[in-house]
């Protein structure tokens, strides 16, 4: 709902089209612009509640005979939405911050990892900008660590930024990441001064890195998405 209790365009559209949240349109825009999810893809959705991104991801897997899978992980128990989802979608109740890479990999087809990792994780907003931004970066670091594996701090252009968040988000640093080579990663952040450091690191790991504030984002929100394409 928008301020004053009036439903805005994206809220009305989500109701009309059967999406469980307006956030569906954020991923729809990313998919339209970047073609992140190919037919038959293996998709890992971190922080999947309430399930709107599960719906959009499944819609982009193509027909059932194309195969593919969407696995949603959330600290809350999430029911797979009945609309826009089929038998290729399932959810796991787990804390991403303590999820081991081997556990995440075991969720993928033939345990070969995922071709797309989506992270829409966000902390409960306290209103304290620096605190919220820092927690957002911790969540972003965890998604990045799960995707690419051990993060080595060599380049002074970004090492100070990443080191601030690495110790609390890397429970098993010696394991490889669960994103397949050539795969795509989407991470949500709350805008803060450390995002540029993450971006510099990701540009080393991925062929293309860009930032997007989707049209469906609420005007009052500071959220922004880092879209990383083509893991090297």
From TrEMBL:
Gene Ontology MF term list: methyltransferase activity
UniProt KW keywords: Methyltransferase, rRNA processing, S-adenosyl-L-methionine, Transferase
The keyword Transmembrane is assigned to this record: no
Domain Ribosomal RNA methyltransferase FtsJ, chain residue ranges per copy: 19-230
InterPro entries named among the record's database cross-references: RNA_methyltr_RlmE, RNA_MeTrfase_FtsJ_dom, rRNA-MeTfrase_E, SAM-dependent_MTases_sf
Active site: 188
Family membership: Belongs to the class I-like SAM-binding methyltransferase superfamily. RNA methyltransferase RlmE family.
Protein name (database record): rRNA methyltransferase 2, mitochondrial
